[in-house]
Amino acid sequence: MNKTRKRGYAHYKRQELLNKLKPVFGKLINISTGIEANLSKKSLDKMTSAKTLEKSKVNGFTLDEHFELAAKIKPLYETAILVTAHGNLKNPNDPNVVSIKRFIAAAILNNGKKADVLITVKESIANGHKIYSIELDEINKASERFRGLSDAAASSEQGN
After folding, report:
1. DSSP letters along 26-62, please?
2. Confidence check: pLDDT of 111 > 60
């Protein structure tokens, strides 16, 4: 019964988020790299999947906190820093995927809690760059995880 209630609440929050984000669906531009990434309903579904919500929960954030920052995906992506770019590690034989890029944006929740928002962008031959997922992490933990990769990613982008 409790799981059903949680799924129901998450479904309600997804609908609420869809209504908030519909006006910004389309191309979002990351200021530091110039990378245009598409935000769509499919992006929203992935950003709020049970698996993604669970990752944020494990990192110490509530479902409400995850949705609060998901609603701010446009300004978060626009100001995020590219920290790594690599091939498709989960399915290296997929010829359509060009790269998976990870961005980090610092955020402050309405309750004053700080978070690093990890934004995954998938680049494919068929669809270009698409906002793929977000995950909340404690401030600095995500930055530490990607320390050293940020400079390499920036160098890689400048070389293209």
Report:
1. EEEE-TTT--EEEE-HHHHHHHTSHHHHHHHHHTT--
2. yes
